[in-house]
TrEMBL record:
This is Uroplakin-3a. InterPro entries: Uroplakin-3. Keywords: Membrane, Signal, Transmembrane, Transmembrane helix. Residues 240-264 are annotated as: Disordered. One of its GO terms (biological process) is urea transport. It comes from Eudyptula minor (Little blue penguin).
Length: 264
């Protein structure tokens, strides 16, 4: 009996550790190409992360917090002493430099019926599937400058900057945090490439680009050659016609009888 309880305790401890190790993940490249971008990061929504913390007849919501990697560990807390989540904004934290800010809120993803990833190949369903499965941080370029915007602002991230992200489960009725993930691994936005550093050497282009460029070059050459040939033919034809006209005129003049002088 004792061994049974020990085993049960280890199982519970293992489950607790597994829950504590959960953290936001960057979206798979199959679902979000070119991720991260200069100013956005696409994350997977927390499917099935908080199932053990959900209770019937309760209403929950997910908060997403963002902070720069350079922010201090002391300022990484997302709740106050009463377990209420912070409402820090992008402006108040200098874009996450001084601590985490609330970047988004959305409903708890339905673990029982997640989106079918096979539908990503269907052009009529792909947009809805990605919207259910992913969230793009930094996707709102206007909220900072709209004085009438009252929702959670999700402004663009800074290029070439490392960020961390955290999901928080909030009890909507009590207004307190019920669970949270760890901070994500560092995720860095892309760096702006200077025009002089953009690689335009043909040898480093893809094979398809080289073939397309070659075909276009040949077509342009053929069109130019055809145009020059047509112009040359037209000029030569015009010169031949003029010469023929002059020859006919001279022949006509020579064949006309000259007037005879009368002898007195």
């Amino acid at each position: 009996m004792c061994s049974h309880w020990v085993l049960l305790a280890f199982c519970c401890l293992g489950q607790l550790c597994a829950d504590q190790s959960l953290k936001p993940q960057i979206a798979a490249p199959q679902l979000a190409s070119n991720n991260p971008t200069l100013t956005t990061v696409a994350l997977e929504k927390p499917f099935c992360m908080f199932d053990s913390s959900l209770h019937p007849n309760k209403s929950y919501i997910i908060y997403l917090y963002t902070m720069k990697e350079s922010a201090s560990a002391i300022s990484s807390l997302v709740t106050d002493n009463s377990s209420k989540p912070l409402d820090s904004t992008f402006q108040q934290t200098s874009g996450g430099q001084l601590g985490p800010y609330k970047a988004a809120l959305f409903n708890v993803p339905n673990c029982a019926s997640p989106p079918k990833l096979a539908d990503v190949g269907d052009v009529n369903k792909v947009s809805d599937v990605l919207k259910q499965y992913l969230f793009r941080v930094g996707d709102d370029g206007t909220c900072l400058y709209d004085p009438n915007f009252l929702a959670v602002c999700n402004p663009p991230l800074a290029p070439d900057t490392t960020y961390r992200f955290k999901y928080v489960l909030l009890d909507s009725t009590e207004g307190i945090m019920k669970d949270q993930t760890l901070w994500s691994d560092p995720i860095k936005t892309r760096k702006v490439k200077l025009p002089l550093k953009i690689d335009t050497w043909p040898g480093r282009r893809s094979g398809d680009m080289i073939v397309i460029t070659s075909i276009l070059s040949v077509l342009v050459f053929l069109l130019l050659a055809g145009f020059l040939a047509s112009v040359s033919s037209a000029v030569m034809g015009s010169e031949g016609s003029s010469a023929e006209t002059r020859s006919v005129s001279q022949t006509t003049q020579q064949s006309e009888p000259r007037p005879q002088l009368s002898s007195e």
